[in-house]
Amino acid sequence: MFQPGKGSVQITEAEIRARIKALGARITQDYAGQQPHLVCVLNGAFIFMADLVRAIELPLSIDFLAVSSYGSSTRTSGEVELIKDLRIPIAGRHVLIVEDIVDTGITLNYLLRMLEARQPASLKVAALLSKPARRRVEVPIDYLGFEIEDAFVYGYGLDRAQFDRNLPFITSQAD
To answer: Is 164 helix (H, G, I), strand (E, B) or coil?
Structure first.
């Protein structure tokens, strides 16, 4: 668990909660009269996804996929591997990809191209965090929680060596 002095809180639990409530209201408004299909990118986005779906006041469906571009490293390899594919066909559906963090943009670009080929009615992105300083591929983020500086962050679903996903806030690694 988080120990004071090991890192610094970047985004508090209250800030996350308020921002997700606002994102949910905007998604509810934008998708009025539709039934969005949310696709969670595992593992990091699962907590964000759970809170986001509770903030959306529409009938919706969900699915999960998993990709890897990091392996066991904290730096992207630049190659994306699909580990778990969707179970529900998305052709003709209004799809919203739910991502934890958009860093280089490589993974999200891969997902957008892959899912667009499956002919959804629409395809948008909700991301909890964005690190524009590290972007190598520009990608659209339709619903953004927070823009952050280039630092290693964890908590609220994001891991530090597979630990600390359960922190209710986002913190950064101490140097």
So the answer is: coil
